[in-house]
């Protein structure tokens, strides 16, 4: 992985030695057969301390690549490189490659291939065909004269005979010529791979998606809507009107921007547009007074370009994931849920059932309420939503207070192995409380690094 230090000069560290360093104040990991001491990076890790502690002392190459770390993240690791694993303990490096199209040469059949021997083979056949045709016409005419009843249709039979014999003659001639040509070529040797003389330019299909999990790409802001005092809807234009984002449902993108100290800050956001929508990407972002990235986005002007990278995250929703999904969202935690709700409701063949508990402080804080109510109204067999407010208005017909065990048992699916799943996204305190409650109800506790197969999936 590292190019800065000469691999052969690195200290050889057996995996059993790396496995001893698993504490928060002494933490090593193995990536691409190289050993890193990331103790000083633990507090700065964007994914939190728990993820690093779960991978401590182990080979975490697969998890590292699955998340889709950027070039910047890989450069950060360089300073923590301390060694390499022994040659006999090396594992295959995980790389994602695109098969290269090798230009091939097209063999030519030129005029020189049709030589005199081919012509000599054709001429006798054509001559025989013409002689037979002439004889047929002469004989047919004599026969027709002797049969008065057929003379009225004699022209038809003559034409029929002429066309039939002509077709037969041409077929025979063509067959002999082709057979002779093949026999002539059979003596020559052909390569097993026929190379093409045409250079085929490699062009990325717009259907493959424009996002790159390792490199940031800039997209311009084409439309901006303020949908509440502290929430905006942003529309970013993709390179072409027909371009797809290339983001699996449930996954997120990373946005980066340089702060006043010259450091690059990165945050993740889940688009509310689906991967079937071409030419644009849509984000809904709640702003916070002390939120560096949300304030940066809020102050964008039309035409400004923003750096995006992705996809990221472990959730890749498909209609075969499970039969029933329970969702618990708090505040802006609705955005990753919304992309799945939208995909399920707008896909006719998707029969997944979704139940959402959506907690907010006030009614005005409910993001995407218009869209959620519309999906619940138009697809009652697929989607149900129940709102919970800390401060409900008079006449409020939904819930109030906090999401508790009784509400979860009443409105969300019960544990049922692979046939049910609970998704949770919201403030850290809420997520922790919900996980503990769900585990008490019989769901299996999730690991620190989320997996799409978890019964409780934390965004």
Automatic annotation (TrEMBL):
Pathway: Protein modification; peptidyl-diphthamide biosynthesis. Residues 10-86 form the Cytochrome b5 heme-binding domain. It is found in: Mitochondrion outer membrane. InterPro entries: CBR-like, Cbr1-like_FAD-bd_dom, Cyt_B5-like_heme/steroid-bd, Cyt_B5-like_heme/steroid_sf, Cyt_B5_heme-BS, FAD-bd_FR_type, Flavoprot_Pyr_Nucl_cyt_Rdtase, FNR_nucleotide-bd. NADH-dependent reductase for DPH3 and cytochrome b5. Required for the first step of diphthamide biosynthesis, a post-translational modification of histidine which occurs in elongation factor 2. DPH1 and DPH2 transfer a 3-amino-3-carboxypropyl (ACP) group from S-adenosyl-L-methionine (SAM) to a histidine residue, the reaction is assisted by a reduction system comprising DPH3 and a NADH-dependent reductase, predominantly CBR1. By reducing DPH3, also involved in the formation of the tRNA wobble base modification mcm5s 2U (5-methoxycarbonylmethyl-2-thiouridine), mediated by the elongator complex. Monomer. Component of the 2-(3-amino-3-carboxypropyl)histidine synthase complex composed of DPH1, DPH2, DPH3 and a NADH-dependent reductase, predominantly CBR1. This is NADH-cytochrome b5 reductase 1. It comes from Aspergillus arachidicola.
């Amino acid at each position: 992985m590292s190019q800065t230090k000469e691999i052969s000069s690195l200290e050889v560290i057996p995996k059993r030695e790396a496995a001893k360093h698993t504490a928060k104040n002494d933490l090593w990991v193995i990536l691409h057969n190289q050993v890193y001491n990331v103790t000083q990076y633990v507090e700065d890790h964007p994914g939190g301390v728990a993820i690093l502690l779960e991978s401590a002392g182990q080979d975490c190459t697969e998890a590292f690549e699955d998340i889709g770390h950027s070039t910047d993240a890989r450069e950060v690791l360089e300073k923590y490189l301390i060694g390499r694993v022994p040659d006999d303990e090396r594992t295959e490096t995980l790389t994602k490659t695109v098969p290269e199209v090798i230009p091939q040469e097209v063999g030519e059949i030129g005029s020189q291939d049709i030589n005199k021997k081919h012509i000599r083979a054709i001429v006798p056949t054509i001559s025989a065909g013409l002689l037979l045709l002439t004889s047929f016409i002469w004989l047919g005419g004599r026969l027709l004269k002797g049969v008065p009843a057929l003379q009225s249709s004699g022209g038809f039979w003559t034409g029929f005979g002429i066309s039939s014999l002509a077709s037969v003659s041409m077929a025979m001639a063509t067959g002999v010529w082709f057979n002779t040509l093949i026999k002539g070529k059979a003596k020559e040797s052909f390569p097993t791979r026929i190379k093409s003389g045409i250079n085929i330019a490699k062009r990325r299909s717009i259907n493959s998606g424009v996002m790159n999990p390792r490199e940031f790409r800039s997209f311009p802001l084409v439309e901006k809507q303020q949908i509440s005092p502290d929430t905006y809807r942003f529309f970013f234009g993709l390179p072409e009107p027909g371009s797809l984002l290339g983001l699996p449902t449930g996954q997120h993108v990373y946005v980066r921007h340089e702060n006043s100290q010259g450091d690059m800050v990165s945050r993740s956001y889940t688009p509310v547009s689906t991967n079937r929508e071409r030419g644009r990407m849509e984000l809904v972002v709640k702003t916070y007074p002390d939120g560096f990235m949300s304030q940066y986005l809020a102050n964008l002007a039309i035409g400004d370009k923003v750096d995006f990278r992705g996809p990221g995250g472990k959730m890749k929703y498909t209609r075969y994931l499970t039969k029933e999904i329970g969702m618990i969202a708090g505040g802006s935690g609705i955005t990753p849920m919304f992309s799945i709700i939208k995909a399920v409701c707008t896909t006719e063949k998707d029969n997944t059932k979704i139940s959402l508990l959506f907690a907010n402080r006030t009614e005005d804080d409910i993001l995407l309420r218009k869209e959620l109510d519309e999906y619940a109204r138009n697809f009652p067999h697929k989607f149900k939503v129940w709102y919970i407010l800390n401060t409900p208005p008079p006449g409020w017909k939904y819930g109030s207070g906090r999401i508790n065990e009784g509400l979860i048992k009443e409105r969300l699916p019960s544990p049922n192995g692979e046939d049910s799943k609970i998704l949770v996204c919201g403030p850290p305190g809420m997520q922790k409380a919900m996980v503990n409650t769900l585990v008490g109800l019989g769901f299996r506790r999730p690991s620190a690094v989320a997996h799409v197969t978890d019964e409780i999936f934390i965004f």
